[in-house]
Structure formats: C-alpha cells, structure tokens
Amino acid sequence: MEQCACVERELEKVLHRFVMYGHQSEERLDELLRSVCEIRAQLVAFGVQDADLSVLSQNMTQCCKNIKETVQMLASRHKDIHGSVSKVGKAIDRNFDAEISAVVAETVWDTPERQKYLSESIVEHLYRQGMLSVAEDLCQESGVVIDMSMKQPFLELNRILEALRMQDLRPALEWAVSNRQRLLELNSSLEFKLHRLYFISLLSGGIGNQMEALQYARHFQPFASQHQRDIQILMGSLVYLRHGIENSPYRSLLETNQWAEICNIFTRDACALLGLSVESPLSVSFASGCMALPVLMNIKQVIEQRQCSGVWTHKDELPIEIDLGKKCWYHSVFACPILRQQTSESNPPMKLICGHVISRDALNKLTNAGKLKCPYCPMEQNPSHAKQIYF
Ligand SMILES: [Zn+2]
Question: What local confidence, expressed as pLDDT, does residue 197 receive?
Fold first, then answer.
C-alpha cells in the first residue's frame, strides 16, 4: 500500500500542475484576446477618424511581441509537465517489481492443453464482461473453439444486466418468471424484488399510475407469505400517491441504490442457477496473484540468500501458506496428520471406521497383512472399510 500511495502522490503532483497550467494559459489567452480586440477597435476607428498611424503600428508590434512571448512561455511550461509525467513512470518502476520470473514455475504453460485452458478462461472472462467481439477475436487468433452452449448463458446474462442498468426491468422479470420454480428452490427472492422495483417505478410516476399500480400489485400474490412486511409497506405507500411518495414517510422506497443492488442480486442468483461462479475465475486468480506474488518474491529471496533452494520445488505446492482472506475460502483442505501433506485427488482423505481421518497413501503404508491399526485410537480394523471423504 505504501508503494501505491507513493505513486499516487506523484500522480497528484502532475494533476495539480495540469490544472494550474490550464488556468494560467486561459488567463494569458484571455489577456491576449482582449488586446487583439482593442487593436481591432482602433483599426475600425482609424477608418473613420484621422488617428495617429505610428501609435497604431507601435501597438500592433507590441501585441505581436506579447503573443510570441506567451506562446514560448506556455510551450516551456508544457515541457516542464512532461518532466513530472515521466517522474510518475519512474515512481512506478521504483516502487513495483516488474521482474516476477523468479517465482514463476517454468512448466506451468508448457503443454498446449494448459495454454488452451488459459485462453478459455480469458474468453470466458470477456464473455462475462460483455466484451463479445473481443472474445470472438481471441477465439479466432488462439484457435480456441467455444461451444455455443457455453456462450449462450453469458450472452443472456449480459443482455438482461445491460437492460437492468438502464432501469429496464422487463427482460429480468421475464427471465425470473420463467425460472420461478428453480429460483424458489434456491431460496431466491429475485422475482419478488424485481416486481417490487417495478411497482416502485409506477409509484414514482405519481397519481396517474394509481390504477396500474393497484393492478400490478396482483403480482405480489405468490410471495404474500414470505414477504408480507414488504408488501404491506408497498401497499401503504399508495395512500400518499397523491402528494408524491418523495414527500411521504415512504420516501425510502425511492432510494436509487436499489438498482445497483438488484444487479448484484440478479448476477448472484442467475450465476447460482446456471452453475457459474459469481466472479470470473480469471479475476479471482488475478486478484489472488496480486496478493500472493509479493510474499512469494520475498520468500524466494530468503531461500536464495540462505542457499536452500531445494525447499521450493514448484510442485503444485507453495513453500508457505498465503492468507488470501475469507473471500477466497471455497472449501476446506485436509492435511494428512501422518504424512504431513495436503491431500489431493490422487491421495484423498479416508475416514477409518473409528472416525479418524488419514490420507490414502498413509493408510496403504500402515496396512500390514490386510489389517490396519489406527495410529490414533488405536483400533484394529480392515482397511477396506475406510471410506473416502470429500471436502
Ligand atoms: Zn482411530
């Protein structure tokens, strides 16, 4: 964070100089314009009166000189700003380490299959962002073939979200109504919240919408038991329709942050329904990398200084645990207490009949003549009775 603040300070200096430069140049240009206008007026006057030609010529020469000086002065100040801009670049170089090759495992992208995964995640990310043409171009250039069935949900999500951002609820409502049953199974209140917002948009139209609002209230019927309180508030607000909801105790219904909220709820519930993660896997990986890289680079340096390079072998495992925050806790992990290794798909955790859990490799190692003695309790048992468990 210290590094960011340092770069930000330099950036603020540049911005300040830009603003100052803008003010100064405007002031000077106004001044020049004024004197040019004066001369023009004198010239016009010269046509009708018998003015002193030498004075006029002197004024014009002075004005030209002023213009030249101003242009030179502004150009040299502009050059000074370039100096400040390049200082920002230097501050970035000084504060951020761009050389990360030391902590990159060379074999990460060495097979075409892995490169395909990378391209696919980038394409998926672009689809999620609604950058369809960029995604198509990347597919063409990288030779990645994306199935239409993978593309379709993102296209639909984007179309609906785009409309929601423009405060158009219809596409989202159509989607929610056609997926009502599945949304209710997920315990989602999306459809009710969409109807509620539609009702509120009718309320904000004033007394002219009274009949329409009353008729629309029928849509609340399926949600009556679950959202009784919300529905009571909405119906209560109708009393104040004539004087305007904004002047009533119900003015909180018109809060604008509800639109951002409905976009989030829609994204969350639609992703859950489609079996997609709410955030793009690429942005999650990128954010995790940003947090983990500085720690890893420090560790790498320490390892090299102490000359114990064998500690970190890059084999699917980091030399230390890096805390990425609760947001990145997707599932628990299990480390085998016997082998002191994190379990994996090839070496999964196994629950013994006594309830203790060890990894399958440990179980195989401890099995002797078809029998296993639990290393903890120590109950003797048949190793084939152990069951794989999933975290
Ligand atoms: Zn046991």
Answer: 93
Shared domain for 157 and 73, answered yes or no, is: no
Report the C-alpha gap between 210 and 196 in whole angstroms: 15
* Per-residue pLDDT tens digits for 292-318: 888 888 888 888 888 766 666 656 667
Task: Tell me which residue range forms the domain holding 155.
Answer: 147-274
Q: Taking ligand 1, which is a single-atom ion, which protein residues have CB atoms under 5 Å away? A: 354, 356, 374, 376-377
> Side-chain half-sphere of 313: how many Cα atoms within 13 Å?
3
Task: Say which residue, 60 or 195, is predicted with more confidence.
Answer: 195
Q: Is 380 helix (H, G, I), strand (E, B) or coil?
A: strand
**Residue 40: how many other CB atoms lie within 10 Å:** 10
Q: Determine, yes or no, domain membership for 220.
A: yes
Q: Is residue 325 part of a domain?
A: no
**Cβ burial, residue 385 (10 Å; 0-12/13-18/19+):** exposed
Between the CA of 105 and the centroid of ligand 1 the distance, in Å, is 39
4 Cα–ligand 1 center, Å:
52
C-alpha of residue 378 to centroid of ligand 1, in Å? 5
Query: Which residue, 35, 62, 95, sits at the end of a domain?
Result: 95
Q: Which of 93-97, 141-145, 171-175, 336-340 has the highest mean pLDDT?
A: 171-175
Q: Say how many domains are in the chain.
A: 3
The model's pLDDT over 126-170, given as tens digits with 9 standing for 90+, comes to 888 778 889 889 989 888 888 877 788 888 888 899 999 999 999
The domain that holds 361 is classified in CATH as: 3.30.40.10
